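Hello,

Our lab assistant flagged a job as stuck in the queue for most of the afternoon. It eventually completed. Since we weren't sure the result was trustworthy after the delay, we are filing this so someone can double-check. Below is the sequence as submitted and the structure that was eventually returned. Let us know if re-running is recommended.
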Amino acid sequence: MNQQDWLSIDKKHIWHPYSSMHNPIPVYPVVAAEGVYLELEDGSKLIDGMASWWSVIHGYNHPQLNAAINSQLDKMAHVMFGGLTHRPAVELAELLIKITPESLEQVFFCDSGSVAVEVAIKMAIQYWYASGQSEKQKLLTIRSGYHGDTFGAMAVCDPISGMHNIFSHILPSHYFAEAPTCKHDAAWDQKDIISFKTLLEQHHNEIAAVILEPLLQGAGGMRIYCPEYLRQVRKLCDEYKVLLILDEIATGFGRTGTLFACEQADIIPDILCLGKALTGGYMSLAVTLTNSKISDTISSNPPEVFMHGPTFMANPLACSVAVASIKLLLESPWQQRIAQIEKQLSNVLIPCSTLPQVADIRVLGAVGIVELKKPINIEQVQQKFVKLGVWIRPFRNLIYIMPPYIITPAELTQVTDAIIEVVNTL
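-- returned structure --
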């Protein structure tokens, strides 16, 4: 098929993320990817400012990750994890236990970030059921959050400003505190925790867990808040005997400047969700980690097993490339790279806050966010970025980037120059 033929089939039959089949946003045909560049079928190249939704931290077509995939492929591509095990899963579990916060020693492999959140929710509820407190089935979270597109995950996304409000009448009902307003580096204001504390005081007897995205809220609004808020949350969860789930699917593996965002608050969750960058963007894989208290309680009380088991759990190809990706990250100067990206983004983007169409500029680690005062026409804006040789996918009133860590200063300059040029046209 020529390009016109297969793009026609795509447009007629394929549903892309958050798209309409009647009036779909144009898609751009990618034929190859190398480093930070996407190559389109017409031969043009785009610098990927999105790292394929946070995941491709080492860039595309990396020889070490390719080698890990090929080596495992020669042995076995997949085997069920029920009743069987394999070395890649064990190596990955051992590595994750070593690098994640202390006490997170049990690893549950799953398919995607949304499923990792589902697993975390089920784990928390089953823990209290096993503890003889089956009334603890609710969750507490904060507004402007996003945790995935499956039903359990949708139920803890913002019910008003989030993407899933049309399903609100059939989703489980949970508690939502006001989102923190504290800036990442601002002085702490105790008023910021009042809404959260009040809900916990009133409903802790029925709340199984708190679930949050630490420091950086993703698709719910790309909001950044201060580490002290997390410390306050951890303290209150301990006081009221509620589990703390941290969703680091987007923030894990260095994106915010530390290996995991919770390190900046010096706290340890009871349950931790990881995904996205776990495999360097090569394959879909996620994990939910927890401590021995939770796993022992679940395993020692009826039904004495954790009630979840995906078909492609711990896929050997995915586990192999995840091990290679984590080792590649740890062996690289990732802290310096993130610090350089953060410094460059701050120096270039923060001055844009004076533009009349800009509401706010936010930078944390390898994340840069331009919040506009009005929603934008995504199709038109994306076309402008493509003409400027960069790939950025805005949403609502947000233009944001989270590039691969290997991006050079010159490549990042091309991306930020494009942002400034496009913003000035809005």
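-- support follow-up --
The delay was a queue issue, not a problem with the job. The result is valid. DSSP finds 13 helices and 14 strands in the chain. Residues 31 and 271 are 39 Å apart (CA to CA).
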